[in-house]
Amino acid sequence: MSIVNKLVLRFKGTIIEEYPLKNEETTIGRKPNNTIEIDNLAVSSLHARVLQIGNKTILEDMGSTNGTLVNNKPVRKHVLQHGDIIGIGKHTLAFVDVNAKKIPNEAVEEIEDDMDKTMIISAKDREAMLSGGQKASDQMPLAAVQIITGIQVGKSFDLNASITSIGKGDICKIKVKGLTVGKQAAIITRRPNGYHIAYLEGFSKVKVNGTTIGSEPITLKDGAIIELADMKMEFFLKES
User: Fold this and answer.
1) In this structure, are residues 5 and 96 in contact, taking their beta carbons and an 8 Å threshold?
2) For 7, which of 36, 49, 53, 93 could close a Cys bridge (C-beta 3.0–4.6 Å)?
């Protein structure tokens, strides 16, 4: 039996249960039909879900009333990294990547302590944070990609979300046609230290500046050329 990644549910520092991520989708919510049931009024009926896409584990808030936090910051979508602490109501879920190095318990406790101090946040404040209303120190230049070949030439897409999907699937913001293109062929993630791109699925590989990339995220630099199938697009930083 293969070893899988897992989520560790805690309440006020006490481990309640561990949930192996065996399926493509793991749902989290107050109702008992969820994979992970958290019976608390601060938790929505279907609060969030965790998707396994390729070798990526992606957390997605499902329009919950009180929002979903990762390491004390509100998110709509987030590619989970080993040691990330998900905040849902008064509970936390630690993401454990079995292939990664362990993180010190003190680090987990520090994040959880910070989350306890700031767990209550108004919907207005949370929306402002999600839409870019963070402190100036947390801000980063907004970026975009512009199509430079094909029938969509000239069209641009702002990369203002935590995750922007590229592929032929319905969930993708940037659509690329082709039999060999994956439904979610690649993702561009927006993090405090910059923008990163990673290949997820499909026979058509993703190239950056002519070099084929893999599932390990690489940093995008201003002017980088991204290729997928017969589409080329330029990544660029916008003036603030």
Assistant:
1) yes
2) 93
Residues 204 and 219 sit within 8 Å (Cβ to Cβ): no
Residue 107 dihedral angles phi and psi, to the nearest 5° = -65, -40
End-to-end CA distance of the chain: 51
DSSP letters, 55-71, are TEEEEEE-S-SS-EEET
Task: Give the span between the Cα atoms of 59 and 36, in whole angstroms.
Answer: 13
Q: Is 92 exposed, middle or buried (0-12, 13-18, 19+ CB in 10 A)?
A: buried
Here the tokens at position 84 are: 């990330």
DSSP for 117-160, please give it. HT----HHHHHHHHTT-S-GGG----EEEEE-SSTTTT-EEE--
The Cα–Cα gap between 151 and 135 comes to 39
Specify the 3-state DSSP secondary structure of 238. Answer: coil
Please say whether the beta carbons of 55 and 70 come within 8 A.
no
Residue 110, H or E segment: helix 105-117
Note whether 55 and 215 are within 8 A (CB): yes
pLDDT tens digits along 136-193: 334 567 899 999 987 788 999 999 877 788 988 877 889 998 889 988 888 888 877 8
Across the strands, what pairs with 188?
164, 197
State pLDDT tens for residues 180-207: 998 888 888 887 788 999 888 888 999 9
Tokens representing 101?
A: 């190095």
